[in-house]
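Subject: Protein record for review, amino acid sequence with backbone structure tokens
Why sent: The fold of this protein is of interest and is recorded here as tokens.
Notation: Tokens come from a learned vocabulary of local backbone shapes, not from coordinates.
Attached in line: The record itself begins immediately under this heading.
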Amino acid sequence: MRFYNDPLFRIGGHYVTAAGVVAFVVFFAVGLILARVFQSDHFRRLLTRLKLGKSFASIVPAILSLAALVFFTVTAVNAGGIPLAWNRPLPAISLTLVQLFLLIALLLAVFWLSARTKTFLFNRLLVNSGLDRSLQYAISQIVSNVVLVAGVFIVLDNAGIHLGTLTVFAGAVGVGVGFGLQNIASNFISGLVILAERPITIGDRVEVAGVTGQVQQIRARSTVIITNDNIAMIVPNTKFIDSPVKNWTYGDPRVRFRLPIGVAYDADLEQVRRVMIEIARANKHVLKEPAPNVYLNAFGESSIQLELVVWSDEMSNRPSSFRSDLNFAMAGKFKELGIEIPNPQRDLHFRGGPVHVQMASPANDDGRARSGGGVVEQNSTAA
């Protein structure tokens, strides 16, 4: 036992014993284990079950892991025989270790309060207010951001980190940091503008910067859009301010769909028009009012170009599927009624002399094609 208490080496005027080394290893190992536990999937799922909010649940494991590592590292150093006073100010800052951990705890409390404020406003207080649901979300998000910013300022001020003392530091590094934070600040302000003006809201189908999908979440820096392939696209908020945005459901959810189709010149256009309208009315997603209609757009080289126009208030999220269903229905009905959808055709004119044409006939039973000959006479003056 005396061996464990005998000095092994000296660090900073303090002797370290074998028992101190063992104690250091034990406490440091405990810190590492706790840090791993806080980063584990089980702990993250526990935070998710507590409904603390996605942002809060994502930042808590990292902060707790770091705090556990620092706490047990300091404890290990003390147990190893090198005293580190918990109430002694740390170098370069006026905070002690106790105050530092208290500051971390208060900041976590502020993040939690901000998340709970948003949830309480959106799911309870404003749910029966009569306001539009998207406006309720905007109010909840703005109030949550205000609580977060105000809470951080109050905690820092009470911890002795006065914002006025940061003026010199901000002036010294503000230019360099400003360029790095320019996009972040711009996206944050754009997020506030989006929440205030509401050009897009939760559930809208939008097209912006080459991304098409449904708005799932409007965050402080970015907006989450879910595509029809169930892929989450994170779009910076500035894209909704400085780029054209196509909002399929802004104000009025009704959307007009245009489906072009060509028919042969010998087709009965009235019959074709009647069939196309019947197909549109038979689709449960097509609105009765405005009523579906058919337009004759142009006389093409090989077909008459028609266009079916229908309205829907629920298929803007699945436009390709909606168009496909109507096109399949028209193709099947046209085939049943013998209405031809022609391929491109060309009329050939020969300037003179007879032209011999050999046409392939349907195959015989043995699989060989029967052939027949023919002569096409062409006037030499034809154009």
Summary: The first helix runs from residue 2 to 5.
